[in-house]
Design goal:
Aspartate Aminotransferase, domain 2; 2 domains; seven-stranded mixed sheet; four-stranded antiparallel sheet; 14 helices; 17% strand; globular
Amino acid sequence: MENLVRPEIRNLNGYHVENAPSKIVLDANENPFSLPDGVMEEALSSLSRVRINRYPDTNAKRLRDLIARQDGVSPERIVLGNGSDEIIHMILAVFCEKGQRVMYPVPTFSMYRIITLAWGGVPSECRMDGQWDIDLPLFMEALERDRPAVVFLATPNNPTGNCLSRDKILAILNGFGGIVVIDEAYFHFAGETFVNILNDFPNAIILRSLSKVGMAGLRLGYCIASEKIIDYLNRVRLPYNINAFSQAAGEAILKNWDILNDQIEALKLEREKMLSSMKQMTGLTPFPSKSNFILFSLEKERGAPEKFFQCLLAKGIRIRDLSKAPFLDRCFRVTIGTREENEAFLAAIGN
């Protein structure tokens, strides 16, 4: 069987999810708040009307219209995916031939590399500067040398949490004629967007997700781009890729966007409190964040990262251990939870 598998897949490590049972789960960048009873009842009522013996609307028109209205764009400029991961698959299927390079600054979202290899592309990774921002001279030099088919730029970036410099992203767009994907999965927590540049840069694609704002279980991602790009993406999109239940529940939840927005604002306040508290602790270095999580490094005086992580697990708290990932030595990522969850985490790591 090994001989039948492509070499790049044999050597590929898949996306790892920690499954250690924990009372407080702060490792997946999820919205910790449940939907109010009224919204849940509305969503469940919508689900009860789904005819599961029939295929869903292949274009998810009602859901797409709601998202378009929310984001202030035309529905014809949107493609929905089963999570933003599926959109990345579509983009590489359309624009990346086998052996072509796909470029992105690191550290960043690990699925760029995994999906690139899955499609037979070649990852081209360019290290960020000391502020977790694009090292523009290095990046532009790599663009000229590697001539990638697609560039991915996540802002806010996962796992660092910060927004990339707008001027640097615009410099890349002005100097590169290939596809530039600006991943705004955490846009709702930062409020900074590049949607307004799409008319000036027809090679740009904006990637977004509804998972982070409270719909992780529905797996709804989407992209915004020119109608020409959307047409090509639809040619490779699997039919009926958004199931009927996700469409119905997504519609019901988006009609109550004010509630989600209130939750987002609450998480932003908790994020700032968390950052302030962590800055006061010795042996920790939290990094600025515009997302719904905080990246921090553990100083050597606090001991081994493995012991730190296991101590938190023993207290029923699970965060993301990134200490063995490239460029993230001794680093961890903690999701912003409810006030009670955040206070428990801070107490657990306090000096």
